[in-house]
Amino acid sequence: EKELKLASWGPTQHYVATARAEWINEVNEKLAGRYKIVDYPGGQLFGPREMHTAVARGSVDLGVVLQPAMLAMVPILQGVYLPFAFDNLDEVAEAYSGESLEILERAMEAKRLKLVYMSYTDGVQMYSAKGNIEKVEDLKGLRVLSQSPIFSEIMAKLGAAPDTSVPQTEQYMALQRGISDAIANSVVGGYFQKNHEVAPYVTLMDMSFSTIPVLMNLNTWNSLPADVQEVLTSIGHEKGLKTLAMAKGWQANFENKLKEEGATVTEMSDEEMEKIRVVAREVWEKWAKDNGPEAQRLLEISLKR
Amino acid sequence: MEPQPPKKFFLFRFIDFTSDVGGVASAICLLAATFIITYEVFVRYLFSAPTTWVAEISIYLCMALGLLGAAYALKNNSHFSITIVVDRLTAKNRRRLKIFTNLMGIAYSIIFIVKGAEMAKFAWDIKDASTGVLQFPLWIPWSLVPIGGLLLTLQFINKLAEEFAHREG
Amino acid sequence: MMTLYVIGFIVAFLLVLASGFPVGFGLGFLGLGLMVFYTGFDQALTMGIERAYTALDSSVLVAVPLFIFTAQLIAETGMGKRLFDAARTFLGRFRSGLGTATIASSGIFAAMTGSSFVSASTMGLIAIPELRKAKFSDTLISSAITAGGSLGMVIPPSIVMIVYGYLTDESIGKLFMAGMIPGVLLIVLYSAALALCFRLERRGRPAPPVTLPGQDGEEQAPAAAANGGAVNSPFGQLKEAAEFVPMTKFKAFKEAFWGLLAPIIILGGIYLGVFTAPEAAGIAAIYCMLIGFFIYRTLTIRKFWNALMSSAMISAMVAVIIIGGAIIGMVVVYGRIPQQILALIVAKDLSPLLLLLLINLFLFFLGMFLEVLALVYLAIPLLYPVVLHMGWDNIWFAVILLINANLALITPPMGGVLYIVSQIGAIPINKVIKGALLPVIIMVVLLIVIIFVPSIATWLPGMM
Ligand code: NA
Ligand code: NA
Is the terminal CB of chain A with fewer CB neighbours within 10 Å at N or C? Predict the structure, then answer.
């Protein structure tokens, strides 16, 4: 029996983690006696910051990767993470299929990464300490914590003051003490990271949808027999779809939890969202222009929806 | 102060010089980190205009600080070590042990040169960039690993040579 | 088989440490060697070096060299001496009051930084010469500084609690609060224990003569020699502090004013949201520079450069230890050693109390070999399911883990604070370990009390 080492991170109660646990169990049952996936949870081996590189290098066979964290390594992935370009999660899932999936897989394989399956998370919303965001004007001067260049760019164009200077471990304190005003996070992720305790005004904007792929080192992948590859991806695909379904239920569920714990949850009007999209579009187009024909094609496919 | 071995061969004076250069570089990195972090606080608090580079660059400066300064600390015999057992050995056995541990040190730091260079090249080949906003090319901080390893290897060789010089002296 | 493996691991560990090879290099070397058994030669080296890099590639660690630099500047500018003299004046005629002053100042540092290394090195530089003058023994000095250092992550803010909150879905604000009462209790207990031990030590000895400059040097020299040439250590900057002259409380306050302002600026800045806790390290260094150059005028370019060079050197040494610890931690994780030990414990179907006791022993044992964050990242995913399974209070368990994590800092063989105290004070490591026994015992006692009286941990967060 050969071991396939999987490195993961994050809370084990998250639906992406529970679906992954099922995937591991079912794969291990199917491949019993031949292959066995062994999980190293909680960031013991690698965290989201360095996971994609570790998998590419082969330091671990399988890794749970935070898609936005690997944008610098595989820039084309930005195409499925353009802020305000997708109305809902189904559109994102669709972008991970067909021709656009081929483009993405090629780009990842060039970096020695094989996509085993994709997990989906609920949309990124705005947690503010200063009141709900009702209009675009409310963003003026808002110090928003950010880790993403393209998000920062759009926020700056909208008049906000995106701040990338506060490391993750300090973000809770920064919001509590007023160094920062707001942070972008998903409903479920923000609940787990306790964003609502210090930034209780949650505005639903579905800015973007981060995905959490399970990636395998390409060499390891190529060393596996075809039927084993098939088991990994087919069960994975099933679990990926499960996260897609769970994302919606969990978001609703955790919206209620947020409210129970004193947060105010509102939605931004379509009218205001449209104003933001006009600004965002310039940024997408510039991105596509800077990143070559494949990026152009990806944007085209995305915008067709 | 420990008496210096009477005359140091040119090569070993040169090695000490490389360690000193590493030490000075590391001190400059520390000073730079101090100033840029304070700069960040000022521009963020006074002008609501946080930088996109200080958080990340300060990490790399501190990596450089550690990796480039290690040989300088070794030159000054400053690394934490436990000498309760060693102090009870005879001079001859102590020297033998020191020769052995210095060889271990050489092996350890050579791994940093070889593997560090391999990783730096890998980061270069796949154009790996940092996760943050800066998208900093990672072959640069990775290069600090083999450079630090080289400085350390040289200084361990120096320490080994000192042990042999002691026997003759 | 497992037992054999663990014993072999410990023996190899002790051999490397005893060889006199610098601890950081030794741990890394051993870790790479052990890793070869799991992954083969080439892969082991690759992963080891990768781990070394990622261990340093951390925003959390940036504050460490900056606070070390601050500590050096506080010593070079004479600010520390002024602060200490003020504490001495205000604490009156009791010599043992110096122990209390050390613990209280460490508490302030803990509330500023959350870094135990920094707390220990700063307080060490300032307090050790003074404690020596007051005729504290080397062992008792070690007790005072290691105790102070161990407060770093109990008193909020605390990185351990942030990690715990994130991984287990618990309120970080509540977790911070949970550390407050145990932290204050530790300060009180440490101060009382130090005063008591000092009395016991003094009893039956002639009253200490009036301290004369140079007298302490005799005690230091052999100690330093026994420490393997620590005379040349960068910490060997312990100044022979000028004679303490009794003064009025007003004068003491005036002398120490700028020094007293420093923690106020730093804490105030953090709490008013001007800067983050790691950034406070940079502000603190700049503040000390300004005071030293322009107000006290005690800082010369030469002294400044010396402070900078020795800070760089100390930081490099810390980095070497972090790398070594990270590599050995990787082997422990990769070999799934904790899981196997835990499986043995849980399988026995024990009573909750016995299980908790065994978990604490397990954490204590891991803490001997791992550094704080490595321990926390390893322990939470392992133990949180047990907490859920047993229906234990999550905040209560977080505090138990927190205290165990802080114990890890001062338990040999892998206890960073121990080595810092040894180097700074030129005190042989065995004396430091003996001295650290005092805070270790007190923490264990507190741990037992918290196990039986959970409200010490849960009352304050419950009030929120
Ligand atoms: Na603290
Ligand atoms: Na320890």
Answer: N
